[in-house]
User: Fold this.
Amino acid sequence: MIIVHILTRLLRAGAEENTLAICRMQQAEGHQVVLIHGREFDTAMVAEARREFDVYQLDRLVHPIRPLDDVAAVGQIRAMFRALKPGFVHTHQSKAGVLGRLAARLERVPCVVHGVHILPWTNIDPTRRLIYLLAEKTCAAWTDAFVDVSPSVRGDYLAHGLGRPEDHFVQLSPMHVARFAGAAWPEDWRALLDVGPDLQKPPTLLMLAAFEPRKRHVELLEALASASLPENAKILFAGDGPEVARAQRAALALGLADRVRFLGHRSDPERLIALADVCVHTSEREGLPRVLVQYLAAGRAIVATRLPGLEDILSDGQNGVLADDVPAAALEAASLLRNSVRRERLAAAAASTDVSAWTPERVYPSVQAAYRHAAARRGLDLSPSRTPRRIAV
Assistant:
């Protein structure tokens, strides 16, 4: 079976990591996996993916709503589908979810699955909210199965009339959670924190997230500038993306340049989390963030801005703190850096949280069930070929 996954962007972020994990499991099962992404991508991540799958980039598939680009992108996607002749198309992210499903409908692709990684209508203006909901309602009629990143995401989609209950399958984002429990500090921790050989580690705040507007790095910096942090506290930002330069300018303008370290992409997130005393997450839109599961697995005190669905894993005041907005999150984080008793109580509760449901072997059966459901609706044979091949397009 040829399975085509299509994403708007291929950056180092949760939806992309989730998608790649599913691609690897399907490839291992014997299916032929093809990955299509849009104009924004991480070069190294694409190079890694190309060692495993056929990967194609479409220059007209962009994240913002741009009618001319969007029409052209549908044409590009249709051409890919005509050449590949997939049995399944699995769309991810909002823009690729809409354009990919439209192209699949026009090309009569046998089965269409949509991966729901985020609630795109959260915390946006009424006009965009209406556009997103209308687009999702239209595409839902062309979708054979939905793969939802959390129970709350599934519930929200159903509450908005998007698909039938039997068409929705909860698939938590697969990851090897064991690597985050008991990890050691990075070997270069002194250099990361700019700490001399005779000094102890200072109080450390970490945010591990892609640099994109919805993560609100700049807003967090602005709030931390007046949040009464401990005098020697350090702030670590790990990740990459289009907002890095803006965040760096903000840190300089706010007088935080000596406190903030921009680490870029690191291959050892478990060690960075181990180094942190408090871990934060200030996104304005999410499904269920992978990084919060990683913070829990590592047993760290967590502060996150309140979003629909976070209650699936965080209980306010018990294994984490849910703040109403970014300034409140900054105040909570600063308070935890100063209050070791409260911080350690939250960390202990985080460490005792069961996150075993996110292991790949627990996750993949939900994906298989979604595909079997879609195939049954269309009378399609799901037997893998066991002989993956490269495809010339």
